Amino acid sequence: MGIIGRHSFELCSRPRIISSASYVGDKEGKGPLRECFDKICRDDTLGLDSWEQAESRMFESAVRVALAKIKRQSDDLSCLLGGDLLNQIISSGFAAREIRAPFIG
Question: Where are the domains of the chain?
């Protein structure tokens, strides 16, 4: 990945997905695709003070599971692409900060 200016970069090769992980809620976990998910969360707040904190924790955990599947660490990431349904992509941004990877949101 080449850096262009201060806030842009150029991909040197085609991007590809080499791993994935999914965290879902209780309702999805009871459905026909339940065997496809990495983690089914019975409590969608994970015992935290807000749903936003829980979503951030789920995002971070999913990234770490996806990395573990391919025996990699967050230092191996060129960048992290993420998003969520909250204004300003708050949850993904906070999770990316914990993962310590360049973030495109």
Answer: 19-104
